[in-house]
Amino acid sequence: MGLRPTQPPENAKAAPVTAGLSGLFSTEPFKSRTIVVFAVIAILAVYAALRIPGLGVPLDRDEGAFGHMGQMIRQGGLPYRDGLDHKPPVAFYINALALEFVPSTARGIHSFLLVYNLLTLLCLFALARMYFRSLAAGLWCGLSYAVVSASPDLQGFSASTEMWALLPISASLLAAVAAIRCRRPWLLAASGALGALACWTKQTMFSSIAFVLLYAVLAATPDLRRAARNTGLWMAGAFVVSGGFVWYFWAHGALHDFIYWCFTYGLSYAKQVSLSDVAGDFRDGLWDVFRSNFIIFGVGIGIAAWTLARSFSRERRGASDWHWPAFVLGFFILSLAGTVPGFAYNHYFAQLAPAAALAAGEGFRILTERRMSAAVVCLAVMVSTPVLVDRGYFFERDPNVISRTVFEDNPFPESKPIADYIDEHSRASDLVFIEGSEPQILFYAERRSPTAFLMIYPLMTTHPQYKQFQYQMMRELTARPPKYIIAPVNVPNTLAWDEEAEPQIVDFLTKLIARDYVLERSILIMGRCGEWIEPGTKPSDPDAPLISIFRRKQ
How many CB atoms sit inside 10 A of residue 97's CB? Predict the structure, then answer.
């Protein structure tokens, strides 16, 4: 596949790694150091400026679930026993760590993501500089990642599993390259451990991590003993981390639930969408990502593909400059494969960001080599294009409007005022149940649910255990009746009923509310953050989406 870095790229031989921008601009020491400083400042400024609009965007339901699980962990709870979600555990523990430093707010979580994602940028800078032996490629890679990772088209503002997984993916590949380049085999074990962390953050990251292992093996060929050693070291690191997770949940009596929610249910969840829908959603999502970042994707992937084809032409047969394009294209293709399974939501395409930035790093270095004017033009075009394409996001000052634009009629802006109401009218020990899939309300209000199910949609789709889950929720609500029940009305996304599963839990909740609860407030899902209506007031549109707050009778 051409992944062996046996020779540095031909374009990196002109100057050592430490020589300023490695030929991108003048190599006169003072001038080069000055340009490097300005380049670093520009990258950090672009990174911060593009992420400021997303800091206050209301949390979506996945972010709310991760945040609530983080709160639960800090209170001594255990994922898959005290709170159920079909994501692997790393995102929950990252949120628990975040809450040691930031408040339980959207701005708090997104601020932590801003710092966390900056570490990913630094990893990719180091990776590009080391692999391409070029400081210029590293800087261009960092800038490309700063731009593409902030794209609203892949929900770069969301603290999703994809965004949390990009750091261990990038660090895993960096450790593998360092192990080969610096002849430090033990780093392959670190690479495997980081790769396992990525997969325990999101299952589909396996495809990107498979590339890292493939690189470590092919870099040792044709020496089969070295290839076997590299494989063994890498797998050892991966098995230690994976074994640690398995042991931890086994020791706490939750191994069966851990395996079920991470794999069994995750597989049935992915199968809920047909192949035709997958193809259509995948095409639309990929187009959304490319249309705003086509400069980065075009330069990176285009120059890599052109260089690879040119290296195999008749007149250049035997040339050694095919290694780097095979490296970046292989990484990109396997990263793209991870976006295919199941629902092709836009945030799935965040997995492409490291590979796209790495390819663009060397692509822009080649395109602008020794041409200051070309570098300035490329910088301006790279940054301005996505800003202009998504100007409705980057120039919008109201984060609630951004949420409404991206997530349409999902009640994410309304979740904060609902949580504030619950916080004002209940004690910290009171239980709150969400008859839907809006755990961000529990997160904002810092309240616990009487049931381990943070979202109701796993009970509303047909799979082997959905009825068992409905009965479990009924038992938990009967044993621990909540003070408040928050019930969405005319909000299909929050139930996600497939119209095939028997809705026994809905009938149970309807009777429970009618018998033991009284309507206290309702909020219409409309405008920038909803509109409160008093009990007894009916909306003019009977089909208007709203969320009702029911309080248990004394």
Answer: 15
Answer yes or no: are the C-beta atoms of 386 and 298 closer than 8 Å: no
pTM greater than the 0.85 cutoff: yes
Residue-wise pLDDT tens digits, 412-449: 999 999 999 999 999 999 999 999 999 999 999 999 99
Are the beta carbons of 432 and 484 closer than 8 angstroms? Answer: yes
Ordered by start, the domain boundaries in the chain are: 10-394, 408-552
How far is the C-alpha of 402 from the C-alpha of 410, rounded, in Å?
A: 12
Phi first, then psi: give them for residue 414, nearest 5 degrees.
-75, -20
Q: Say how far apart CA 78 and CA 71 lie, in whole Å.
A: 11
- 102-144 pLDDT, tens digit each: 999 999 999 999 999 999 999 999 999 999 999 999 999 999 9
Q: φ and ψ at 547, to 5 degrees?
A: -125, 125
Q: Which residues contact 214 (CB under 8 A, 6 or more apart)?
A: 1, 3, 330, 334
Q: Which helix (H) or strand (E) holds 548?
A: strand 546-552
- Helix ranges (H only) for 16-89 are 29-51, 61-74
DSSP 264: I
Q: CB-based burial of residue 359 (10 Å sphere; 0-12 exposed, 13-18 middle, 19+ buried)? A: buried
* Three-state SS annotation for 200-213: CCCHHHHHHHHHHH
